[in-house]
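Lab notebook, design round three. We kept the backbone fixed and only want residue identities now. Task for the bench partner: fill in a sequence for the structure below.
Input structure tokens:
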């Protein structure tokens, strides 16, 4: 298949691109490196089945696509839109870019998919559930989002994108897939992304204080990136058009997560408590009943094993 993939140099996008190319598909990656990193796709760029355009996915990219292709292919089977800043510090720093790539970008790419008769795939987020009052969160939960809060630039942009996607589905019968990704970690994460996984692991590696925001009793459920990619591949093979949660339902408090990091990395680091960011969700855990039923998918990689693999990569980043 021919696949247009935005966000191809990002953490998730680069893993997905690698997997798709390995399966024999042609992938045209698009990224403007606003948070993605060129090194994530440096090996892919030598593959005959991978091509890349440096472009902002929030703007129409059709002409760019047509004139820049190695293969001159203009027929795509899939348009997969993963481009977006995704860690809180990054989307706080890029508020308009975040809103535009999920808002305008989604609209342009839906148009492109419609014109090309391609299926459209979108990476939404557990953030659409906001600070959830239902636990764990099934896809049917409408969420508890502060529309004017600091995180709204991301949460509401993703919710707008979801609404746009289902408008195209209802209006034009556009074929769509939509996943809601819960906290995901693994090799190729940006050490500077400011997330809890990167912060605490690098702090432990450097014997620096490990920063816990708030009392550390808030929870997250951490999914290893290979499990996510497997879920994406399986969903592409179904004809299910509605949102599907992809996340690991094993839930940890942030303090428990810090302890797991300390067990893995011998360190002199001490835990320090810092203030909790505004609107930081108190709990987060996916209900994955649907993904299990639909495609027999469930995460295979336990936190400890996933963190070990991630650590190997982080050591090479430090070196
Ligand atoms: N967090 C923390 N220390 C850090 C970074 C994050 O305690 O150095 C907390 C953060 O407040 C949140 C959780 O860890 O409660 C997960 O944060 P992250 O930024 O990884 O992702 P989120 O799930 O909030 O989008």
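Proposed sequence:
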């Amino acid at each position: 298949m021919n696949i247009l993939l935005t966000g191809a140099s990002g953490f998730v996008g680069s893993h997905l691109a690698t997997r798709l190319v390995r399966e024999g598909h042609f992938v045209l990656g698009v990224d403007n490196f606003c948070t993605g990193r060129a090194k994530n796709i440096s090996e892919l760029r030598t593959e005959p089945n991978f091509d890349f355009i440096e472009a902002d996915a929030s703007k129409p990219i059709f002409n760019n696509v047509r004139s820049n292709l190695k293969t001159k292919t203009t027929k795509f089977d899939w348009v997969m839109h993963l481009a977006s800043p995704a860690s809180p510090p990054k989307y706080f720093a890029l508020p308009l870019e975040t809103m535009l790539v999920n808002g305008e970008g989604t609209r342009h790419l839906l148009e492109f998919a419609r014109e090309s008769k391609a299926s459209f795939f979108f990476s939404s987020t557990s953030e659409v559930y906001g600070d959830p009052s239902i636990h764990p969160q099934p896809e049917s939960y409408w969420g508890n989002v502060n529309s004017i809060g600091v995180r709204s630039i991301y949460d509401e942009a993703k919710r707008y994108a979801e609404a746009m996607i289902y408008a195209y589905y209802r209006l034009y019968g556009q074929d769509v897939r939509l996943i809601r990704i819960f906290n995901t970690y693994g090799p190729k994460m940006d050490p500077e992304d400011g997330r809890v996984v990167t912060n605490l692991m690098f702090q432990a590696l450097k014997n620096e204080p490990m920063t816990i925001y708030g009392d550390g009793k808030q929870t997250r459920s951490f999914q290893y990136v290979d499990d996510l990619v497997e879920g994406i591949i399986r969903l592409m093979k179904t004809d299910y058009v509605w949102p599907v949660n992809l996340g690991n339902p094993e839930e940890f408090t942030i303090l428990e997560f810090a302890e797991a990091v300390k067990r893995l990395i011998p360190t002199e680091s001490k835990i320090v408590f810092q203030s909790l960011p505004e609107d930081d969700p108190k709990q987060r855990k996916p209900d994955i009943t649907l993904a299990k039923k639909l495609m027999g998918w469930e995460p295979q990689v336990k936190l400890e094993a996933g963190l070990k693999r991630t650590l190997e990569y982080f050591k090479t980043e430090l070196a």
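Keep this in mind before ordering anything: Residues 87-88, 183, 195-196, 199, 211-213, 218, 220, 254, 276-277, 280 surround uridine-5'-diphosphate (CB under 6 Å).
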